[in-house]
Amino acid sequence: MGMRVVEGDITRLHVDVIVNAANNALAGGGGVDGAIHRAAGPHLPQACRNLGRCDTGDVKATPGFELSANAIYHTVGPVWQGGMSQEPELLASCYRKSLELAARQGFQSIAFPAISCGVYGYPADQAVTVAVTTVQIFLEENANIDVIFCCFARDMAELYRDAIQTMEKHNH
Ligand code: APR
Fold it and tell me: What is the pTM of this model?
């Protein structure tokens, strides 16, 4: 339990929930969204269409289909516009709402990609701070879920490890 960092492809993880960094139309895309759509197979697009749109900072769930995960949570991170357009609040909301939904649905493990850190341009160091802080606050109240930060790149994984270490130091 708690949070940890894994390097690699999120679609390969054996967790209850895989979080997708989607767009408002839930229309699929490149990056992690494309990888999840390819791995989940042909039924995911229709399931997404049935959900309609998703607001930035919100989350909607589909089954995992051909993934080993039970569910895919499609959340929409903010597009970075300089940091004064509620980006931190909206990004925190993606993490918090995903965690709340996972707890409500009784899931015990959830893996997040680095939401907004690719095409959406959120500075990675700032996004990592938001992610780790938001998860930490959630875990203080809900200890029984395993949270995995899945990073494609080693330098991103290093940022998460540093942020988790810094936070743990402050808590002791
Ligand atoms: N597993 C884990 N992480 C991945 C994978 C993968 N298979 N593929 C990409 N990533 C990482 C990227 O390296 C980046 O750090 O996910 C992070 C998020 O990048 P994006 O996928 O570009 O997501 P985001 O910045 O939130 O942009 C969302 O991109 O694909 C479109 O439809 C999507 O319009 C939406 C936008």
Answer: 0.98
C-alpha to C-alpha distance for 162 and 147, rounded to whole angstroms: 16
Q: 13 in helix, strand or coil?
A: coil
Catalytic residue among 9, 33, 55, 162: 33
115: Cβ below 6 Å to ligand 1? yes
Q: Note whether 11 and 67 are within 8 A (CB).
A: yes
Taking only the tens place, the pLDDT of each residue in 109-154 is 999 999 999 999 999 999 999 999 999 999 999 879 999 999 999 9
Greatest alpha-carbon span in the chain:
48
Residue carrying the six token digits 């289909």: 65
Q: Within a 10 A sphere around the Cβ of 70, how many other Cβ atoms?
A: 15
